[in-house]
Amino acid sequence: MPEPSDALLAVRAAEGDEGAFEVLVRRHSAQLLRLATRLLGSRTDAEDAVQDAFVSAWRRMPEFRGDAAFATWMYRIVTNRCLNLLRARRPTQDLGSVPEPSAPEHASSPVRAAESTAAVEALMRAMDGLTPEQRACWVLRELHALPYEEIAAVVGISHQAVRGRVFRARRYLTEAMGAWR
Questions:
Q1: Mean pLDDT taken over the chain
Q2: Chain centroid offset of residue 56 CA
Q3: CA–CA gap between residue 15 and residue 122 (Å, rounded)
Q4: Rounded average pLDDT over 62-80
Q5: What is the value of pTM for the model shown?
Q6: 15, 54, 124, 133: which sits with the fewest CB atoms below 10 Å from its CB?
Q7: CB neighbourhood size of 129 (10 A)
């Protein structure tokens, strides 16, 4: 028997079916956590943001009309939560709180591992120079491969504004990472 669609589960959840909502949470939490971690740079903050987003979504399920896919709706809630946190933050971020990605292919070469770590740290510092809105658009486009139209729906701005923010973010990051080319 095929698994129920997100749309069906969302309708059931809107009617108060906790089990249907739990399936949606399990189905989308990993992807939303990756998004929040990339936006916030902190796994702990990301976990809190995603948890808050799901609590908010549960409370607002009766308002969900299905105009957009459930995943898009959740992307928007998580992105907005992350943007609010980024705006409230101090301008600088402790890079020690950013989880270092594992790179097993570099395990045999300490020099390559050090270079990779340094490049990731440089990218994180460069991303701190982006506005929260540019960062959100860039992460959704470059790391989550969402189309511009979906990013516009998630962030709540026009398609052209998304293109502009992604363009400015790319230009800024290209300049900031010039030494790594």
A1: 85
A2: 17
A3: 47
A4: 89
A5: 0.69
A6: 15
A7: 14
pLDDT digits (tens, 9 = 90+) for 145-172: 899 999 998 888 999 999 999 999 999 9
Do 40 and 49 touch, CB atoms closer than 8 A? yes
Which residue type is seen at 81? R
Q: Are the C-beta atoms of 36 and 50 separated by less than 8 Å?
A: yes
Inter-residue contact 146 to 140 (CB < 8 Å): yes
Q: Is the pLDDT of residue 141 over 80?
A: yes
3-state secondary structure labels for all residues of the chain? CCCCCHHHHHHHHHCCCHHHHHHHHHHHHHHHHHHHHHHHCCHHHHHHHHHHHHHHHHHHHHHCCCCCCHHHHHHHHHHHHHHHHHHHCCCCCCHHHCCCCCCHHHCCCHHHHHHHHHHHHHHHHHHHCCCHHHHHHHHHHHHCCCCHHHHHHHHCCCHHHHHHHHHHHHHHHHHHCHHHC
